[in-house]
Amino acid sequence: MEILEFIKIVLLGIVEGITEWLPISSTGHMLLFDEFFPVKAFLDNPDFGDMFIVVIQLGAILAVVLLFWNKIWPFRRAESGGVCIHKEKFILWTKIAVACVPIGIVGLLLEEKIDQFFYEGNRETLTISLALIFYGIMFIGIEHMNKKKKPRFDNLNTIPYSLALCIGMFQCLAVIPGTSRSGATILGAMILGASRIMAAEFTFFLAIPTMAGASLLKLLKYGFQFSGWEYALLLTGMVVAFLVSFFCIKLLMRYISNHSFALFGWYRIVLGLLVFVYFVGKYAWK
């Protein structure tokens, strides 16, 4: 049984590492994964299962930190031998902090109501399928509209605070299952005039405090009263998510430097249709 749990945790880490950064909805993929490999069914502690799904994201965050360390670390060694602050990187973090405000407010004030509305009964699967299809169409449409347009923002150091705040507002759409946090922020940034590269990078950086905060809240909610085996599973999932995220992010940045997000739009539409047909058929036969 422990070997089976370990294998499923590895698979879950792979799914997390891929879908967290691609704009294809980690929630939709987790739903399908849980349909065939129920997470709570093979974990003895339901509280650990709820915590695991969120905290595994810490591994994915570490991949962003490592890959973009030189772009985000605001401290540097001064010529005098001390430590000084890199002004542009510090300002970038203030913009990221501004962008985090909307989702922080929504999360603190509306988390329970959101869970009750979207995750009760069969509403979750319908919402996920519709969100997958809708944002897939949006990606294709925005890429088509921007084909002959030159981006207004292509440098993270020059984006205004107003743009950062608006991107943060788009991130709030991710509370709707199937939307994709990265998908919402990338799409929002592109609608507001950002280049693909800038939109993706800001999305990755914004994920660091957002996902770290969500993980911390889950840990505080459930505490640290888990078994040694459960901690081993959590660490395994985080390591796998980190490794997969590391290569996935590198491939994504290389891909979008020469290609559009339209392919991900088509993928979302197909996946959304599959989710809808599968679960409608499943519930119809009950």
Describe the structure.
- The protein has one domain.
- It has a two-stranded antiparallel sheet.
- The chain is globular, with a radius of gyration of 19 Å.
- Helix 7 packs across helix 11 (196-222) and helix 8 (123-145) packs antiparallel against helix 13 (262-284).
- The two termini are 30 Å apart.
- The chain has 13 helices and 2 strands, in the order H-H-H-H-H-H-E-E-H-H-H-H-H-H-H.
- Strand 1 (75-77) and strand 2 form a beta hairpin.
- It has 286 residues and is mainly alpha-helical.
Q: In percent, how much strand structure appears in the residues?
A: under 5%
Sheet with most strands: 2 strands, antiparallel
What sort of overall outline do the alpha carbons produce when their principal axes are compared?
A: globular
On the 0 to 100 scale, the average pLDDT is 85
Structural class: mainly alpha
Please indicate the count of domains. 1
Number of strands: 2
* Distance linking N and C termini: 30 Å
Task: Itemize the secondary structure elements and their pairings.
Layout: H1 2-19, H2 26-36, H3 39-42, H4 46-55, H5 57-67, H6 69-72, E1 75-77, E2 83-85, H7 87-118, H8 123-145, H9 161-171, H10 181-191, H11 196-222, H12 228-256, H13 262-284
Antiparallel strand pairs: 1-2
